[in-house]
Design brief:
There is one protein chain. This protein has 292 residues and is an alpha+beta fold. The protein contains nine helices and 14 strands. The protein has a single domain (5-10, 18-291), classed as Sandwich (Jelly Rolls). The radius of gyration is 17 Å and the shape is globular. The protein has helices at residues 16-25, 36-47, 51-55, 79-85, 87-96, 125-129, 181-188, 256-259, 286-291, and strands spanning 5-7, 27-31, 57-58, 68-72, 102-112, 120-123, 139-145, 156-159, 170-173, 176-179, 193-195, 203-207, 212-214, 223-232. 48% of the residues are buried. The chain starts with a strand and ends with a helix. The strands form three sheets. It has an eight-stranded mixed beta sheet. Bound molecules: 2-oxoglutaric acid. 2-oxoglutaric acid binds at residues 108, 110, 120, 125, 156, 212, 214, 225, 227. 2-oxoglutaric acid (AKG) binds next to strand 5, strand 13 and strand 14. Its cofactor is Fe cation. This is Phytanoyl-CoA dioxygenase. InterPro entries: Phytyl_CoA_dOase-like.
């Protein structure tokens, strides 16, 4: 295993080695953060209860293909909400980012359908979030593979250590925010370009200034993932926008994902209507297709 890879177990902790890796590379990979039973339950929650059908929309890439996503503001009390509330996710993220209290900024389900799913342009998440009034790059994301997320089906790519280079200007590339292309090329000449291979249950925890992208899905293999993002309480955005300002996050024990049997009550989650999001131009909306 590379020195940015760690195996999750009940005794996992953010040791000095883990912290050093996160600070040096801008990410760590946590293998097996969720086990097979948890992944199966999360898949069921997404697939069997119409969530994706109701709330997802495309985000066109530079060649007009569309990866899809859906976003919600608050975790809620259903099975999907237990992921960004679980101790093993939140406390790990808090320790990686220096120990301050984090709150849930949003969870996204990132979807690339077989043969159809499009790319995400090179970007920093902070390229989006800077525009939302988050004054400091004090945010972290936990990208959790539900399906294998590998090169062939449009898995993540990162520029190792690029989080240390500060915020890069972002502007629209079709429906998405893309980082300044010349600067990305310069950075590629200095930072290793790494394809991240994740199996179901593996997670990438990454700094909001890490440059990352993902290619199209030309394979027969679906590529779905959770992406839970957290902001520091003391980095509460200065403007009201489409993502939440500080809201206390109620952590739950790790066992909650297995124990929760709420698949249908989404009270309080606040699914994002992309029309309110000034940082994306949404493409095909699942619910509009349904109405036709
Ligand atoms: O799902 C992907 O491939 C990319 C996701 C991403 O870059 C993001 O959510 O910021």
């Amino acid at each position: 295993m590379a020195d940015y890879e760690f195996k999750y177990s009940e005794s996992f902790d953010v040791t000095d080695d883990v912290k050093r890796a996160y600070e040096k590379y801008g990410f760590i990979i946590l293998r097996g953060l969720m086990d097979n039973e948890e992944v199966a339950k999360l898949t069921k929650a997404l697939v069997e209860f119409g969530l994706v059908e109701k709330h997802s929309y495309g985000v066109p890439d530079s060649v007009g293909r569309e990866p899809r996503c859906m976003i919600w503001s608050h975790p809620g009390n259903d099975v999907t909400g237990m992921v960004p509330r679980s101790e093993k996710v939140v406390t790990t993220c808090e320790k990686l980012t220096g120990g301050d209290e984090l709150y849930h900024y949003h969870t996204k389900i990132m979807m690339k359908d077989p043969k159809k799913g499009g790319s995400f342009e090179w970007h920093q998440d902070y390229g989006y979030w800077y525009k939302n009034g988050c004054l400091a790059p004090d945010l972290i994301s936990m990208f959790l593979a539900i399906d294998p997320c590998v090169k062939e089906n449009g898995g993540l790519q990162v520029l190792v250590g690029s989080h240390r280079l500060g915020r890069i200007d972002h502007s629209f590339v079709e429906g998405q925010q893309g980082a300044d292309k010349e600067r990305v090329e310069w950075i590629k000449s200095r930072c290793e370009h790494l394809y991240i291979n994740l199996q179901p249950g593996d997670a990438l925890l990454f700094h909001c200034n890490l440059l990352h992208c993902s290619g199209p899905n030309d394979s027969e293999q679906r590529r779905w993932a959770f992406n839970c993002s957290f902001n520091k309480k003391n980095n509460d955005p200065v403007i009201d926008h489409h993502h939440p300002r500080y809201t206390k996050l109620d952590k739950v024990p790790n066992s909650a994902i297995k124990e929760c049997n709420n698949f249908t009550d989404f009270t309080g989650k606040e699914f994002l209507d992309p029309a309110t999001d000034k940082t994306v131009k949404a493409g095909t909306k699942a619910w509009e297709e349904k109405k036709e």
